[in-house]
Specification:
α16 (443-457) crosses α17. Helices cover 40% and strands 14% of the residues. The strands form five sheets. It has a five-stranded parallel sheet with strand order 2-1-3-4-5, sandwiched between helices. Strands 9-10-13-8-14 form a five-stranded parallel sheet. Strands 6-7 form a two-stranded antiparallel sheet. The chain is built from 18 helices and 16 strands. Residues 122-142 are annotated as: Disordered. InterPro entries: AAA+_ATPase, AAA_lid_NorR, CheY-like_superfamily, Homeodomain-like_sf, HTH_Fis, P-loop_NTPase, Sig_transdc_resp-reg_receiver, Sigma_54_int. This is Sigma-54-dependent transcriptional regulator.
Length: 489
């Protein structure tokens, strides 16, 4: 491959000359321009592969230059240089399509890594139809019903697809939000699949599932003897994901001290293992996910504001399944194909009556609950088409599970009790259990009954119970501690 062409746009003469000389010493072909207007003229004539531009410049600043460069037919990757305190403008540049940003004064090692990543992305991207230059998108088209592991033709899912297409080839951090079971990890895997890192590791870690005392070791690694029981050196998730993608699921459950350390790694691209004296460079794209409202989490102190702004360069909101029920036939068909392969079954399809029932159900557990329901039905059906009798008794019928997102209908006479179903989807259990809650029961007591009944139904599987209840494992543990404390009074 011929050396990449790098255009340096910087209004300060010494900085411009120093950057151009440094980048040339790394083997790149380099040109320089004194401001945004001159940079735009040079880009038109020279067609650089990478543009390294300052933000604050006379005549045309970095954001205006990015906007003008986007009008040119040739593609390029932009790296923005920003002074401390102008991070908001750098984030705006990333949202406009910049590949990455770097704070001034420039750290040569960080700049070299960014340019290497940009070059690798250019080399791995498919050639476009015009002139063979690399395309920066994910090479998909509108109205596709699949994007990697994601499925859907609805407007909500098509919006998710377009966002993933746009940002997957970049190196930006992404925050994915949505209710439990909406497919946040699948969206993260799609971002990885359509990026230049697709042939490198994808590592997913659930921050809520790791004990607080071990989370730093799991994420950042440790040296031998760093703590009691550390008998050997161990790489953390960052090092395991080197050159690839790291998904930090349930980021709001991460302890505050670990969040501070994570922020440092994101900014410096270096980490220090527990017990280590030296820092280790890392090259990892970080994607975070949470089922909480991140702004509320920041307001409550669960999530650091500076970490939120560093992660939330781009935001993907995964829609609840009830909000794109028109996609259920497609999703169910994809799940059926997968389950036939995994279970060795030959279920030929799904009856219209069952599809109608699936589409009318509110799915409080979203796609995860749909998968559990489908899996149970496939195992029962064997070689038959999936039909209503393969569902748990009463599934989806009126009054079976009141949708949590809707108000209960008015009644002329108040009921004596309310029934809340616990959809366990456990092998060997034919139908959901029901919690009877008498009128006059407090909300706290009703919640306690539902949690304890769900644990019984899942045979004390706390992870599964938390999934059914739509809460994190940590929240469930805290509730159980509270109940034990109350019992001891």
């Amino acid at each position: 491959m011929p050396p990449k062409k790098v255009l340096v746009v910087e209004d300060e003469a010494n900085a411009r000359a120093g950057l151009a000389e440094l980048i040339t010493s790394w083997g790149y072909r380099t040109e320089a321009a004194a401001d945004g207007a001159a940079g735009f003229d040079m880009a038109q004539r020279w067609s650089p592969d990478i543009v390294v531009s300052d933000l604050m410049m006379p005549r045309m600043d970095g954001l205006q230059l990015l906007d003008r460069l986007s009008e040119l037919p040739q593609s390029f990757l932009a790296v923005i240089l920003t002074a401390h305190g102008a991070i908001d403008s750098a984030v705006t540049a990333m949202r406009m399509g910049a590949f990455d940003y770097l704070q001034k004064p420039v750290d040569p090692a960080k700049l070299k890594t960014i340019l290497q990543n940009a070059s690798e992305q250019i080399d791995s991207a498919p050639a476009s139809a015009e002139g063979g230059r690399p395309a920066t998108g994910a090479a998909t088209t509108d109205d596709m019903d699949h994007l990697g592991p994601l499925v859907g033709r609805s407007q909500a899912m098509q919006s998710v697809f377009r966002t993933i297409e746009r940002i997957a080839p970049t190196n930006v951090s992404v925050l994915i939000t949505g209710e439990s079971g909406t497919g946040k990890e699948l969206a993260a895997r799609a971002l990885h699949q359509f990026s230049g890192r697709k042939n490198k590791p994808f590592v997913a870690v659930n921050c809520a599932a790791i004990p607080e005392t071990l989370i730093e070791s799991e994420i950042f690694g440790h040296e031998r003897g760093a703590f009691t029981g550390a008998q050997e050196r161990r790489a953390g998730c960052f090092e395991l994901a080197e050159d690839g993608t790291l998904l930090l699921d349930e980021i709001g459950e991460m302890p505050a001290a670990t969040q501070a350390k994570l922020l440092r790694v994101l900014e410096d691209r270096k980490l220090r293992r527990l017990g280590a004296r030296e820092e280790t460079p890392v090259n990892v794209r970080v994607i975070a996910a949470t089922n909480k409202d991140p702004q509320q989490a920041v307001a409550s102190g669960e999530l650091r504001g500076d970490l939120y702004y560093r992660l939330n360069v781009f935001h993907i909101q995964m829609p609840a399944l009830r909000d794109h029920a028109e996609d259920i036939p497609l999703i169910a068909a994809a799940m059926l194909t997968d389950m036939n392969q995994r279970h060795g079954t030959s279920v030929p399809g799904i009856t219209p009556q069952l599809l109608a029932r699936l589409q009318s159900y509110p799915w409080p557990g979203n796609a995860r609950e749909l998968r559990n329901t489908m899996e149970r039905a496939v195992i029962l059906a064997g070689n038959e088409r999936l039909a209503l009798h393969h569902l748990p008794e009463g599934f989806g019928e009126a009054g079976h599970i009141p949708p949590p997102h809707q108000a209960a209908p008015a009644a002329s006479h108040p009921p004596i009790s309310a029934s809340i179903a616990v959809p366990t989807s456990q092998p060997g259990m034919s139908a959901p259990d029901v919690v009877e809650v008498a009128v006059g029961t407090t909300v706290d007591e009703a919640e306690k009954q539902l949690i304890l009944k769900t644990l019984v139904a899942t045979r004390n599987n706390k992870t599964r119970a938390a999934e059914i209840l739509g809460i994190s494992s940590k929240t469930l543990q805290n509730k159980l501690k509270e109940y034990n404390s109350d019992a001891g009074r």
